[in-house]
Design a protein that fits this description.
Among the domains are: about 140 residues; about 90 residues. Helices cover about 50% and strands about 15% of the residues. α1 crosses α2, α1 packs across α3 and α2 runs antiparallel to α3.
């Protein structure tokens, strides 16, 4: 019996136990609901022993159906992401049963892939796949020209959620992958690439990469640069809220931080200062460099340096509590 399972099925899936073949179980699951089919897929994938010995064929049928439902706009984003997350969790076992239902056309080369897995990875791929295959009925999804090796890394990440060998690549290769992930809106890969790239940040190059992150709008790289700076700067903590908003919490102005603040000033939108910092003339200098702020937090301060009043920036939110 196909459901000689070692895992416990939820009560609403008990009808699967009587199925003799994978085809019978697949037909029974399809006749009920997509939610129950996904629930069974998750339970089956979690039992890797059952999958390898009995359930691979059935999970393959389900995955092929999920691909088709996604491709025809009948699978919600929530369901798409649930299935993809489960595949990534058990990819070593499930790879053999994953069906490629589309082809990507990259530099005249056809690359088979799962529409669901790529669709789950980003809105860019969802729209691209639906446009080329579902709407325009093309034979393959047309990709912008990128190196074959780079697409292989992207496909590996889409299927597995990780790139264990990325740290072996040259920094420019990692940075190029980060850029492509940003362009194709694969947020998880962008963050992963930045997390690997941070090993190449040094006191000599961090400002260059910080400037690059702002110029090219690479928030994950900006986040890593700011975390690096937080470990080096004294009495200043930087927070990246989004690509256009950065916070600086200043407990004390120090001579060795003056250059850093001058570099950061154009990008700081939120400032929080301590009583000591608020009374420092350097605070007045910082405020004078800003035409506007999103938020200025003076809570807990007893006074500010008099020169601050000479040129006070327009502030959307001012906390004086």
């Amino acid at each position: 019996m196909i459901c000689a399972v070692s895992f416990i099925l939820p009560q609403d899936l008990s009808y699967c136990v009587s199925c003799i073949t994978a085809e019978d179980a697949f037909s029974a699951l399809k006749s009920h609901s997509i939610e129950q089919a996904i629930q069974f897929f998750e339970c089956g994938a979690d039992d890797e022993t059952w999958t390898k010995e009995f359930g691979g064929e059935l999970l393959g049928f389900l995955f092929q159906w999920f691909n088709l439902e996604f491709l025809n706009h009948r699978l919600s984003i929530e369901y798409t992401e649930r299935i993809a997350a489960k595949v990534q969790e058990h990819v070593k076992v499930l790879t053999a049963f994953m069906v490629a239902d589309i082809d990507f056309l990259l530099a005249k080369e056809m690359i088979p892939a799962s529409s669901l897995m790529f669709g789950a990875s980003s809105a860019f791929f969802r729209e691209l796949i639906w446009r080329d295959i579902f709407i325009e009925k093309r034979e393959a999804v047309q990709l912008p020209k990128i190196p074959r090796s780079q697409f292989q890394m992207i496909q590996e990440f889409v299927y597995t959620g990780t790139l264990p060998n990325l740290w072996k690549e040259e920094p420019e290769t990692i940075l190029s992958l980060l850029r492509q992930a940003r362009t194709w809106q694969i947020g998880a890969l962008e963050e992963f690439s930045a997390g690997v790239f941070k090993r190449y940040l040094t006191v000599d190059n961090v400002w260059d990469y910080f400037a690059l992150s702002k110029q090219e709008i690479l928030p994950s790289l900006e986040q890593e640069c700011c975390q690096f700076l937080n470990r080096k700067l004294r009495a200043i903590t930087l927070t990246v809220f989004d690509p256009y908003h950065m916070g600086a919490e200043i407990t004390r102005f120090a001579d060795d931080n003056a250059d850093a603040l001058q570099r950061l000033s154009p990008y700081i939108t939120h400032i929080t200062v301590s009583s000591e910092a608020a009374a420092d003339p350097a605070f007045a200098t910082l405020l004078a460099s800003k035409q506007s702020l999103t938020a200025l937090n003076l809570a807990g301060t007893s006074s500010i340096h008099p020169d601050c009043l000479n040129k006070f920036p327009t502030t959307s939110s001012l906390d004086l509590s």
